[in-house]
Amino acid sequence: KELYEHTRVRIKGVIREEDAERYYTTLTREDPAIIITYDDDDSKILFKGIVENYRLGWINQDYYLELEALSYSVLLERRKKNRIYQNQGTTYNEAFRRLMEDNPEFHISFSKSSTGDVPLVSEDYPVVMQYKESEWDFIRRLSSYLGQILIVDDTKDNNEKINIQAGYHNNVPKDLNNIGGGSAMRTGRKNINYRFFKITGHEHYRSDNIFDVGKKVKYRLNNREKPAMDLIIIKNRIYLNNQRLCSDLNLVREEDINVLKEIREKPIEGRSFRAEVVKVNKKHQVKVKFIDIDDD
């Protein structure tokens, strides 16, 4: 699980020979679904997604299965649209509502609704265009314009409302109760240094199963000091270790998060010219007079 990304799952294991055909039948369907639960409780959902790749085979009479899956947010990446926003005062919330109309299985919103009341279209940015751009990339781009992180709800499928949230979770920080940790630094885009905290092998029973990125937790700096620091989970690698559910966590202070503006993956080429509207007909076709071009 990671900010601004689809949740990815990788599973590898030995299967019974008599189950191999059933696995093959299931995995060759279009968008085979996968659900992962924990604590032997089907109501405790860890992940819902779509299998993207698989490998089924046998070695020395042992059958094995490897598969990779992505959260249902990947559906947004498959859908490419052309849209243009040019009405002065159109807000980010209005753009998100338009996205939800065309993608009804998703709920796309800001964690604080007031954040999205900011105008998307203004005198400084009179035209915002989505041209042959996936819904996913467009949402990422709009979120980054307001400096908001993007969080995927990976516990819902396309029979439910799948939440895509711009902004942190508004939760009261829960005690992580960590018994280890450390600090680290990574150089990212534009040579910006990112400082973060890292925990390896965190056992989930210690903190009442905190899985979601974007949530605030209380992190112990060491075993001697009682005060804990409020941090935000930005990455969570979950795995089984000796039958225990564990995580490798990356966490940061809220003030240390620096969201860079996303740029269009494929730049739009062309020219624009200023013009005055002379006449509009019943078909909404416009006759204009160019301002900066001599036209006889």
In short:
The protein has helices at 20-27, 74-78, 92-102, 135-145; strands at residues 8-15, 33-38, 41-59, 62-71, 80-85, 106-110, 128-134, 150-152, 162-166, 174-175, 182-187, 193-203, 216-220, 228-241, 244-252, 275-280, 286-290.
The coarse silhouette is: globular
For the residues shown, what is the average pLDDT?
A: 89
Give the total of beta strands: 17
Amino-to-carboxy terminus distance: 61 Å
C-alpha Rg (nearest Å): 24 Å
Helix count equals 4
Question: Helices and strands, in N-to-C order?
Answer: EHEEEHEHEEHEEEEEEEEEE
Largest sheet: 6 strands, mixed
Query: How much beta, percentage-wise?
Result: 35-45%
Structural class: mainly beta
Question: Ranges with pLDDT <50 over ≥5 residues?
Answer: none
Going across the biggest sheet, name each strand in turn: 10-13-14-15-12-11
Helix percentage: 10-25%
Describe the structure.
By secondary structure, the protein is mainly β. It contains four helices and 17 strands. The chain has helices at residues 20-27, 74-78, 92-102, 135-145; strands at 8-15, 33-38, 41-59, 62-71, 80-85, 106-110, 128-134, 150-152, 162-166, 174-175, 182-187, 193-203, 216-220, 228-241, 244-252, 275-280, 286-290. The N and C termini lie far apart (61 Å). The mean pLDDT is 89.
